[in-house]
Design goal:
By secondary structure, this protein is an alpha+beta fold. The chain is built from 4 helices and 12 strands; from the N terminus they run βααααβββββββββββ. The chain has helices at about 20-30, 50-70, 75-100, 105-110; strands at about 5, 115, 130-135, 140-145, 155-160, 170-175, 175-180, 185-195, 195-200, 205-215, 220, 225-230. Strands 5, 8, 10, 11 and 12 form a 5-stranded antiparallel beta sheet that branches.
Length: about 230
């Protein structure tokens, strides 16, 4: 018995003949059950039925031409085939969002129900406390990192040049800051998600102040304690 189901992705291994057949099954399953897959409710359907049918037909026709014609027709077939795979991937994500692990909902969609892992509820990360800053291999570079918070966590870092964090600076979300106007010093914001960051183009002899924060699907954690380092 499957306690938590999700859409199987076995169609990734299908041939040019069987993939359009499977795509038609999924199209009919989803649009044939509007009370389950309501186009007026969230989450939104990835595309219209007409577009889905267009991609299916393109895959079928391009495969037929390729099968009869040879290598010259292969690029057109591969483009259509990959477009259908991508569309089915999008609909698998959609069906999983609607089904929330329900075996029967996935079954009526046309996808194959397989064992899945129930999502765990995320909590807002805590404060990063272990910040390391070192001079880079050449002048004007500082390497900085914080401890790992594990999978599904991302990292941002705010750096102030020659000054601690100014009053009024706020984190709006994981990638956006509110910075007070007319600051007499530079504020650098790195949100490339990595916990190891490299800051280049810095000024030799100036002190730089680093503040990390960690974020995930639940929100943005508090700023770390400040760690400073003079650039050499």
């Amino acid at each position: 018995m499957i306690l938590f189901a999700e859409c199987g992705l076995e169609f990734h291994r299908f041939s040019g003949v069987s993939l359009p057949t499977f795509g038609t099954k999924v199209m009919d399953g989803i649009w044939g059950h509007p009370l389950v897959f309501d186009p007026l409710k969230s989450p939104a359907l990835p595309c219209t039925k007409a577009h889905f049918l267009e991609i299916i037909n393109a895959t079928q026709s391009s495969y037929s031409i390729y099968d009869m014609g040879g290598k010259a027709q292969k690029p057109d077939f591969e483009a259509a085939f990959n477009a259908l795979i991508s569309l089915l991937n999008d609909h698998a994500v959609y069906v999983n969002a609607v089904a929330k692990g329900d075996f029967n909902i996935i079954l009526v969609s046309g996808f194959t129900p397989v064992h899945g892992v129930p999502p765990t509820k995320s909590v807002v990360p805590g404060q990063a406390t272990s910040i390391t800053v070192t001079n880079g291999s050449i002048s004007g570079i500082l390497d900085v990192e914080c401890e790992s918070f594990g999978a599904n966590h991302h990292y941002g870092c705010i750096v102030c040049e020659g000054h601690t964090l100014p009053e009024g600076l706020q984190i709006i979300n994981e990638t956006s800051l509110t910075i007070p106007a007319n600051l007499p010093f530079k504020v650098i914001h790195n949100f490339d998600h990595s916990r190891k960051k490299v800051f280049s183009g810095l000024t030799k002899g100036l002190e730089y102040y680093f503040y990390f924060y960690v974020f995930n699907n639940a929100g943005v954690g508090p700023l770390s304690v400040v760690v400073s380092k003079m650039c050499s």
